[in-house]
Recover the amino acids of this structure.
């Protein structure tokens, strides 16, 4: 029952943050960041298991390896960007957070270009426009 | 890295807050500020450690390296 | 079993660190407490010396020994040592004996350079001129020491508590960081 662990850590961290924030807000922020990273670390193992299954399915169905890699990278970038933006937002830097999110979107777009390319090519070959 | 680190950071924060008040009452505010900075740096070191761990994990799971 | 033993060692270390930090704090605090206490004793001794010179007209060595009675160690040593030096080596003047005694005793006391200067200046007159002049200088030294004492007491109130709490807090900090 890892969920109980997660909730317990969250509760304890919240209490400590309330306790420390009165005197030293910097340390409250440190606790917040630490707790966030720690909880993420706790669940990232589960994500790894899911991704392993997907990987296996993909190799069995014969999809080219590159596509899956790109999709996984995109998911990873989404997670990292979201997480980083949240952390920075906790520190009260809204503008930097929005820049991080923006950078994440652009990187996802760059990653997706080869796949979009393939889709468009497939579409073009399906349509009988070129022959007529 | 374990949960104790959360308590550690909170403990350092509380102790340094008390030290700060004591030093401030005795009119040594400059030293009080230095102590605050020192404690903050110690806390940052702990947090940096977990963040590095997290990034390593993300790299190995999502980006196949 | 081994885990338990390790826990015990850790606990022991934590307790030792706590103890040491608190002790450091108390030693630092005791410096301020001792300073004001020793200054007070020094003033008392000078007062007695003044009466001895004024009414008793006693010789200096006996006057010094008498004024050191009823005063605690490091400060009383200053007076007895001067008396000893004076009786042991006849050619030594009062001033020289006083200077030697101050130099020997000073490191043991919690007193500072300012008091040392006051005492040295007073000693340069002792045993030199007539009684009236000496008394005047004794009184002057007392006044200066009294103002020092007031200052020392203020510092004591301020810093003694600070050092005590800082020692313990620092020890707790170290323990927290090492867990």
């Amino acid at each position: 029952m890892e969920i109980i662990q997660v909730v317990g850590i969250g509760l304890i961290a919240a209490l400590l943050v309330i306790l420390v924030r009165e005197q030293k807000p910097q340390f409250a922020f440190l606790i917040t960041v630490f707790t966030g990273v720690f909880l993420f670390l706790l669940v990232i193992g589960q994500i790894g298991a899911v991704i392993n299954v997907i990987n296996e399915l993909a190799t069995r169905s014969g999809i080219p390896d590159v596509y899956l890699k790109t999709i996984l990278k995109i998911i990873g970038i989404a997670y990292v960007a979201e997480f980083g933006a949240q952390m920075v937002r906790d520190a009260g830097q809204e503008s930097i957070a929005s820049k991080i999110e923006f950078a994440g979107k652009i990187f996802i777009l760059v990653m997706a270009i080869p796949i979009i390319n393939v889709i468009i090519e497939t579409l073009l070959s399906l349509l009988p426009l070129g022959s007529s | 890295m374990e949960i104790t680190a959360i308590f550690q950071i909170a403990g350092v924060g509380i102790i340094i807050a008390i030290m700060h008040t004591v030093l401030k009452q005795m009119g040594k505010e400059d030293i009080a500020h230095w102590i605050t900075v020192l404690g903050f740096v110690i806390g940052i070191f702990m947090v940096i450690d977990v963040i590095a761990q997290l990034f390593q994990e993300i790299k190995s799971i999502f980006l196949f390296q | 079993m081994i885990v338990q033993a390790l826990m015990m060692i850790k606990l022991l270390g934590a307790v030792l660190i706590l103890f040491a930090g608190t002790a450091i704090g108390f030693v630092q605090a005791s410096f301020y407490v001792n300073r004001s206490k020793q200054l007070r004793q020094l003033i008392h001794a000078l007062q007695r010396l003044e009466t001895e010179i004024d009414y008793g007209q006693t010789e200096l060595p006996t006057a010094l020994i008498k004024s050191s009675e009823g005063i605690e160690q490091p400060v009383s040593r200053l007076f007895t040592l001067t008396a000893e030096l004076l009786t042991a080596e006849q050619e030594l003047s009062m001033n020289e004996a006083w200077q030697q005694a101050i130099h020997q005793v000073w490191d043991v006391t919690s007193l500072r350079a300012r008091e040392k200067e006051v005492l040295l200046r007073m000693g340069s007159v002792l045993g030199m001129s007539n009684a009236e002049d000496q008394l005047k200088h004794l009184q002057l030294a007392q006044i200066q020491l009294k103002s020092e004492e007031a200052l020392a007491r203020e510092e004591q109130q301020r810093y003694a508590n600070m050092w005590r709490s800082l020692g313990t807090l620092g020890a707790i900090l170290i323990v927290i960081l090492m867990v």
In short: Chain C is about 85% helix and 0% strand. Chain C has a mean pLDDT of 81. Chain C has one domain: 2-178.
